[in-house]
Amino acid sequence: MNSPSNASTASLAEHAYRIRRNALLMGEVQGQGYIGQALDIADVLAVAYFGAMRYRTDDPEWEDRDRFLLSNGHYAIALYAALLKAGILPAEELETYGSDDSRLPMSGMASYTPGMEMSGGSLGHGLTIAVGRCLGLKRKHSASFVYTLFSDGELDEGAI
């Protein structure tokens, strides 16, 4: 189980490097992908997954886990790279990115990918989904946190 820690800056930088590397390797599989977004957001994902969040690598549906909602589904390659680094997804799946029957489609689908909490789609809905998840967890008296990533472009769309 991963639990929040006081990870060192050097440790988090290494995690971010590995996330970037995984994203580049996935982009190489298809010769495309939102690589720029993955390179940009790797530091945020490293801090979230290796410095803040509680989760179990062998049980992505663990009730007491913290949730990470990726509102901007076109950043899915970055989240997959973090899930691979965190051990939630097996390393062998990296080479299936974007392929037919892959659990790593180019745009995030929660029903396909362990560890992905919401499907990407219409931009601007992640914040309201996160609020709903928070209210549901509060009602269950849960100590879990919900983290949400959305892009600046989403501020003019959806319910935001």
TrEMBL record:
The record's listing under PANTHER family reads: TRANSKETOLASE N-TERMINAL SECTION-RELATED (PTHR47514)
Q: Which Pfam families match?
A: Transketolase_N (PF00456)
The EC number of this protein is 2.2.1.-
Extract one GO molecular function annotation from the record.
Answer: transferase activity
- Which keywords has UniProt assigned to this entry? Thiamine pyrophosphate, Transferase
Q: Locate the transmembrane regions by residue number.
A: none
| Residue stretches making up the Transketolase N-terminal domain | 28-158
Report the InterPro entries cross-referenced here. THDP-binding, Transketolase_N
Q: By what name is this protein known?
A: Apulose-4-phosphate transketolase subunit A
Q: Which cofactor does it need?
A: thiamine diphosphate
Report the family membership.
Answer: Belongs to the transketolase family.
